[in-house]
Specification:
The protein is mainly alpha-helical. The protein folds into three domains: 160 residues, HUPs (Rossmann fold), CATH 3.40.50.620; 150 residues, Rossmann fold, CATH 3.40.50; 89 residues, Arc Repressor Mutant, subunit A, CATH 1.10.10. 48% of the residues lie in helices and 10% in strands. A three-stranded parallel β-sheet has the order 1-2-3, with helices on one face. Strands 4-5-8 form a three-stranded antiparallel β-sheet. Strands 6-7 form a two-stranded antiparallel ribbon. The protein is elongated, with a radius of gyration of 31 Å.
Length: 468
C-alpha cells in the first residue's frame, strides 16, 4: 500500500504571511492535494517576543484569503516543548547526545586558539565522551553527537544530491542551558510526530537538512523526502525586499488581485508545466511535481501577475466574482453594495470583468453603478460638459424617452442623432460618459444605458443639464 503523502507549512509568526512563504505553502498544498494527501499547518511560535496571537491570526487570515485550506488542527510548536525536551533526554540515554558543561568563555577561548593555529574553529567539546560520573553540578546544554568522519548526503528532489563533510558540522545544541529546546530539534520532532512525508521549503534551509538528518538518524526515524525550492528574487535579481514593493499577502489582496490569480502566478514562480501560463487549481494540482521545478531563483514580475490576474477575472463565474469583489470591498473599507446595486453589478459583470486586471480596475469601470445621483464629474469629465455639449444632451433627451430600450435601437437612435447634427459619434459619447458616470473612461455608453435603464439614464442627463 502506498504511503499517504503528508506535507506541512510551518511559518514563524512575524505579523503577516510573506509572499515567499505563501508560495511555499502553495507548493505544499498543491503537492498534497494532487495526491489525495494531507496538508498540515504548524505555527513555529517558540520566539515568544515576536509570536503574538495577532501575528498568528495574520498568517491564518492570509492563507484563508489565498484559499489554502489545511487539514486537522493547527499545531503550536511552543506547546510541544515538553515533547522536544523528552527527545533530547532520550538521545542522551541512547548515547547519541551528551551534556556539555563548557561555558561561553571556554568555547570562545577554544575558537580563538584554533584560529591562531589555523585549525577549524568548529567547537569540539571536552565533554563529548566524558564519564557521566564526572559531571559537575553546573548548568549544561545537550549536544548531538555528530559523526567525526564521513559525509552527510542530502538526496533532494530539486537540488539533487548534496554532500556535506561531517567535519564541517559541529555537535549541535539540542537543549539550551535553561532547558528550552532549539528550533532544529523542534522541527524534526514535530515533522516526525505529525507524520510529514515530504518537506518542501526554501533552499535557504538546505544546510539545515544536514543537521536535522543527524537527529533522524540518532532516533532511528525514517527521513522525509526533501525538496528545497529556489527563493523569490525581485525584478533586479536581488533578494525580494520592501524596495521591490509589497511583501505581505494581504498587500496583494488590498491591491485588488484575485486570489486565483495570485495562486496561479505564484505557482509559476520556480515551477513550470511546459509553456502553460494560465491554469486552474484543478490543473495545477494534477500537474504539480518536482520535475517541473527549477534550481535558480525566480524573479517576481508585477506585469505578469497583473496579466494572469486579469485572465482569472475574465474567466470567473459572475456570482463567484461578485462574492470575492464584495469581500475585497469589505476589507478595504469601501461601503457595502445595496441590493439594487448588487443586481445592477450582476447584470453588468460580463463587460465589467473584461480587461480588468484587478478589482480596483473593475470597480473603476463600475463607477456608473456605484455612484449616486447627482453624479459629480471629475476634472477631466467636467471638460466634456461645456455649454454646447450640455445643449446637445438636452436635445437628445426627448429622443431617448421614446426609444426602444435595447442595444440595437439605442445604437441606431444615437448614431442618427449624431449624423443629423454632422457630429462624430465620439463627440456625443464624451458628454454622455461624463453625465452618466462622471468619468471620461467608462464602459460603452450603450452598456451603461442598458444597465441603468431609461428612467435613471434620463434623470442623469437632466441632472447634468440642470447643474450647468
Amino acid at each position: 500500500m502506498t504511503e499517504q503523502v503528508v506535507t506541512r507549512f510551518a511559518p514563524s509568526p512575524t505579523g503577516y504571511l510573506h509572499i515567499g512563504g505563501a508560495r511555499t505553502a502553495l507548493f505544499n498544498w498543491l503537492y498534497a492535494r494532487g495526491r489525495g494527501g494531507k496538508f498540515l499547518l504548524r505555527i513555529e511560535d517558540t520566539d515568544r517576543a515576536r509570536s503574538t496571537p495577532e501575528a498568528t491570526q495574520a498568517i491564518i487570515d492570509g492563507m484563508a484569503w489565498l484559499g489554502l485550506d489545511h487539514d486537522g488542527e493547527i499545531v503550536s510548536q511552543f506547546d510541544r516543548a515538553e515533547r522536544h525536551r523528552a527527545v533530547a533526554l532520550d538521545l542522551v540515554e541512547k548515547g547519541r547526545a551528551y551534556k556539555c558543561f563548557s561555558t561561553q568563555d571556554e568555547i570562545q577561548a577554544f575558537r580563538d586558539a584554533a584560529k591562531a593555529e589555523g585549525r577549524s574553529t568548529l567547537f569540539i567539546s571536552p565533554w563529548r565522551d566524558a564519564d557521566p560520573a564526572t559531571h559537575p553540578d553546573l548548568a549544561y546544554v545537550i549536544r548531538l553527537k555528530t559523526p567525526l568522519t564521513g559525509k552527510t548526503v542530502i538526496r533532494d528532489e530539486v537540488q539533487g544530491e548534496v554532500n556535506i563533510g561531517n567535519d564541517q558540522l559541529d555537535d549541535m545544541v539540542l537543549l539550551r542551558s535553561d532547558g528550552t529546546p532549539v528550533y532544529m530539534l523542534a522541527v524534526v520532532v514535530d515533522d516526525h510526530d505529525m507524520g510529514v512525508t515530504h518537506v518542501i521549503r526554501g533552499d535557504d534551509h538546505l544546510n539545515n537538512a544536514a543537521r536535522q538528518m543527524g537527529i533522524y538518524d540518532a532516533m532511528g526515524w525514517a527521513l522525509p523526502v526533501y525538496a528545497h525550492i529556489p527563493l523569490i528574487h525581485g525584478p533586479d535579481g536581488k533578494k525580494l525586499s520592501k524596495r521591490h514593493g509589497a511583501l505581505g499577502v494581504e498587500e496583494y489582496r488590498d491591491m485588488g488581485y484575485p486570489a486565483a490569480g495570485v495562486r496561479n502566478y505564484l505557482a509559476r514562480l520556480g515551477w513550470s508545466h511546459g509553456d502553460d501560463e494560465f491554469f486552474t487549481d484543478a490543473q495545477a494540482q494534477a500537474w504539480f511535481g518536482f520535475d517541473g521545478m527549477g534550481k535558480s531563483p525566480a524573479r517576481f514580475d508585477f506585469k505578469k501577475l497583473a496579466n494572469i490576474s486579469g485572465q482569472h477575472i475574465a474567466a470567473a463565474e459572475n456570482a463567484a466574482l461578485l462574492q470575492e469583489l464584495r469581500a475585497f470591498m469589505a476589507v478595504t473599507g469601501l461601503p457595502p453594495l445595496s441590493d439594487t446595486k448588487i443586481s445592477l453589478m450582476t447584470q453588468a459583470m460580463p463587460f465589467l470583468q473584461e480587461r480588468a486586471k484587478t478589482f480596483i480596475e473593475l470597480l473603476e469601470k463600475a463607477e456608473f453603478i456605484l455612484a449616486d445621483r447627482p453624479i459629480l464629474p471629475d476634472e477631466k469629465a467636467a471638460k466634456s460638459l461645456d455649454p454646447v455639449s450640455l445643449g446637445i444632451l438636452g436635445e437628445l433627451t426627448p429622443h431617448l424617452q421614446n426609444a426602444s430600450w435595447d442595444r440595437h435601437d439605442l445604437e441606431g437612435e444615437l448614431t442618427a442623432f449624431a449624423e443629423a447634427r454632422e457630429m462624430k459619434f465620439g463627440q456625443l459619447a464624451g458628454p454622455l460618459r461624463a453625465a452618466l458616470a462622471g468619468r471620461s473612461a467608462t464602459p460603452s455608453v450603450f452598456d451603461m444605458m442598458l444597465i441603468l435603464g431609461r428612467e435613471e439614464t434620463i434623470l442623469r442627463l437632466q441632472d447634468a443639464k440642470g447643474a450647468a
